Amino acid sequence: MRKFLSLIVVLMLAFNVKAQKLAITEAADFTFSDNGTEKTLFEVLDNGQHALLYFFNYQSEVSEEKAPIINGVYNSLGMNQEDVYLIGLDPANESILLNNWAVITDVKYPLVAKDKAYYISQTYGGQWGVMMPALVLIAPNHDIILEEIWPITSADQVVGIINENIGGSNDEPEEPGDEPEEPGDEPEEPGDEPEEPGDEPEEPEY
């Protein structure tokens, strides 16, 4: 059955079919290792960061082409130290192969391999899993805000799309922040009223 699913994935990649619709709208938690430290997706989100999940098969031609781009995205977004935390998930390859590939291609972001990644892919994508390669963006409130970023043409293009979505959510609280300034001018208008009656005593001096 798994070989059959893998064949479907290969055919999708070969024909570049992309019509991503995830099976869930909110993040599903999972564990992963980051430089030997066990973490969970929810820990990342609850810490105020967005999560960027990269589903891929490093042996596929398309994913191989995108590897330098994803490295560029990771570096441009602050290497998981700023607003976005990137995690790679390869449902097709064992950890030892994936880690060897990571060394060769200078991949620094955390990776999840084979069975665990396969389960996560099915959780997010349903029976057929997430079509690969795919970038999924999740907000700190656990909402999935981008089901996929495609096409992936350059690091600048991906970073631009991500910043547009993150910036949109960050700009909203700033608008009501200007409201208190408007009523702040109101006390100045009645402040001139005492000056008008202040001229009245001058009239009886004639």
Describe the protein.
This protein has helices at 2-14, 41-46, 61-76, 95-105, 114-125, 155-171; strands spanning 31-34, 37-40, 50-55, 84-90, 111-113, 134-138, 144-146. It has 206 residues and is α/β, with parallel strands linked by helices. A hairpin with a 5-residue loop joins strand 6 (134-138) and strand 7. Helix 3 (61-76) packs across helix 6. The longest helix has 17 residues, at 155-171. The radius of gyration is 26 Å and the shape is globular. 27% of the residues are buried.
Q: Per the principal axes of the C-alpha atoms, what is the gross shape?
A: globular
Proportion of residues in β-strands: 15-25%
Number of helices: 6
What's the Cα radius of gyration? 26 Å
Counting helices, strands and paired strands, the structural category is alpha/beta
Helix content: 25-40%
Mean pLDDT across all residues, rounded?
Answer: 83
Biggest sheet details: 5 strands, mixed
Spans of at least 5 consecutive residues whose pLDDT stays below 50 are 8-17, 168-176
